[in-house]
Write a structure and sequence with these properties.
71% helix; Amino acid/polyamine transporter I; 569 residues; mainly alpha; 24 helices; transmembrane; 3 domains; 1% strand
């Protein structure tokens, strides 16, 4: 019974099934993507909501030092990208990390990972749709058209702003003296029509763009590819303008202190920075539509990560060089705000318009990825057959695409941006951890290593991981007083859960050190696993709790439906 939970799919069986499926007319996807298309998809997904929205609050938390957090997170993604590339070159089908886990870690792990990929893509899309709505409304307002506030934001934000405004006014503060977010939220909630006593506040533009993108993805990969390529070129041109023009207004003294809130302030932005990079794995979801997936996917992943990391670092340094980081707190459109600060409203208008374009391309790639993961899970019997249905004319996973639109469009009406970013980031890091771990398990069998056209550069992890564990432990707890304070933290204060999470991380690191020596594990996947796991520890106990309940719901569904319906059963 226990072994059946961890049953695995054979790589040879996956490849033979794929070949058989492609020989069936009308029942397969169309190979239409090359390295450039895949790289542009990666850039579209990575350069999205974060560079136009979340980068502002991240810079407020950590100051200019957030640029180094982008580099650190990119390094973690680079380790992970090697592992994705290794799998993509071995199992070139559309299941992404879900399929990779199925071949290496077993069915129940693959299901939980697929369940979390659902969370990653759906919530990422919701976040991008919300950001798109904000910039679109600002653009429309700039052109002289007013959109009622209650049609442009979520209910929770409006209700919180209304309550905060009432408290402020009761203490004698005028509504005009409050922040822009509170004023807009107050106006939205106060002016909203009521239905059975409930204020109707909903983000209609977010729903409209989701429907439009879902339709584009539904009618074909070629149409989606061409649209995305045009949008990415426009996006890169505008970012070049932002950096090129902004560089002339940078005041170097704004970079001092480099980390005004210390390392804790920098790490406070982990969720936002991780959210920036989660899109790179969307490249692997299109494996069945690539002309040469085993060669092109690894190249595209590396190029996309390199390009986007350079852009994020440059934009962060320009932003914090023009605007002191503490002034960026709560600013939802930091790049436009930056140019308004230096009296360049024309450039600010260009940024607002380009943000709409950039976020459209990000939403397009995310909407493209999730249906293909559902399609693969359905082929394995873990989801109903309807999810693997291929449209006879458009050659796209039709039902899965429609369901993705529903799953994104409805929450986008009512969801809060900050909450969805945090929950999406921890689910993504979990997927990255399992992909890195899956490579380690897969490569324990020498026969599997022969089946891949992409090889991860091998360095024996051996003593390096154990030595790093000892150094990290010493730096964290250098003396008896530190140990005493740490132990006391398990029983007092608000950080008890955080202590337990970090302790678990060090235990896993120690176990991995032992296995690195005994099994001569490869250094890059081990580093990828540890760095992603460390970033997960920085997500906070609340996000861990939500993540646990989400996984628990997935386990219940697995035993209620997927375990019995699995084709491996």
């Amino acid at each position: 019974m226990w072994e059946s939970f961890f049953r695995k799919k054979s790589i040879d069986k996956i490849l033979s099934d794929q070949l058989e499926m492609e020989n069936l007319a009308g029942d397969h996807l169309v190979r239409n993507l090359g390295v450039r298309d895949l790289t542009f998809m990666g850039v579209a997904a990575i350069i999205g909501a974060s560079i136009f929205s979340a980068i502002g609050q991240a810079s407020a938390n950590g100051g200019p030092a957030v640029s180094m957090l982008f580099v650190f997170t990119a390094l973690a993604c680079m380790f992970t990208a090697f592992c994705y590339a290794r799998f993509a070159a071995t199992v070139p089908i559309s299941g992404s990390a879900y399929t990779y886990a199925y071949t290496s870690l077993g069915e129940i792990v693959a299901w939980i990972l697929g369940w979390n990929l659902l969370l990653e893509y759906a919530i990422s899309n919701v976040a991008v749709a919300i950001s798109w709505s904000k910039y679109f409304v600002d653009l429309v307002e700039g052109l002289g058209f007013h959109v009622p506030e209650y049609l442009t934001m979520d209910y929770l934000s409006a209700k919180r702003a209304f309550s905060a405004a009432e408290v402020g006014m009761q203490s004698g503060q005028s509504i005009e003296s409050m922040s822009v977010n509170i004023r807009e939220g107050y106006a939205a909630f106060a002016s909203a029509p009521t239905i059975f006593g409930w204020h109707f506040v909903a983000n209609i533009p977010a729903l409209v763009i989701t429907v439009a993108i879902t339709y584009l993805v539904y009618i074909g990969i070629k149409e989606s590819k061409n649209t995305n390529n045009v949008l990415v070129v426009l996006k890169l041109a505008v970012i070049a303008i932002v950096v090129g023009v902004g560089a002339f207004y940078v005041q170097v003294e704004n970079w001092t202190p480099f980390a005004p809130n210390g390392i804790s302030g920098v790490l406070k932005s982990v969720a936002a920075v991780c959210f920036a990079y989660i899109g790179f794995d969307s490249i692997s979801t299109t494996a069945e539509e690539c002309k040469n997936p085993q060669r092109d996917i690894p190249k595209a992943m590396m190029w996309a990560l390199l390009i986007c990391t350079v852009l994020y670092v440059m934009v962060t340094l320009v932003l914090t060089g023009i605007v002191p980081s503490h002034l960026l707190a709560g600013i939802e459109d930091p790049l436009a705000f930056m140019f308004m600060k230096v009296n360049l409203p024309g450039v600010a208008g260009v940024v607002a318009a380009s943000a709409v374009i950039a976020l459209t391309s990000a939403l397009l790639v995310y909407q493209l990825g999730q249906p293909r993961i559902w399609m693969t899970m359905s082929r394995d019997g873990l989801l109903p057959k309807a999810f693997s249905r291929i449209h006879p004319k458009y050659h796209t996973p039709s039902f899965s695409t429609i369901m993705t639109g529903v799953l994104v469009g409805v929450p986008a009406l009512f969801a809060n941006l900050e909450e969805v970013i945090n929950l999406s980031s921890i689910g993504t890091l979990f997927a990255f951890v399992l992909v890195c771990g899956g490579v380690l398990v897969l490569d324990l069998d020498p026969e599997n290593q022969k089946k891949s056209k992409f090889k991860i550069p091998y360095v024996n992890a051996g003593i390096w991981i154990g030595a790093a564990w000892l150094i990290a432990l010493y730096l964290s707890l250098p003396d008896a007083a530190s140990w005493s304070t740490w132990i006391q933290g398990y029983f007092e204060g608000d950080a008890k859960a955080d202590h337990a999470i970090m302790t678990g991380f060090f235990i896993i690191w120690l176990v991995l050190s032992v296995f690195s020596i005994s099994h001569k594990l490869s250094l890059i996947p081990v580093l990828g696993l540890l760095v992603n796991l460390y970033l997960m520890t920085q997500m906070g106990a609340t996000n861990w709790e939500r993540f646990f309940y989400w996984c628990l719901a997935g386990v219940i569904i697995y035993f209620g439906y997927s375990y019995r319906k699995s084709k491996l059963n």
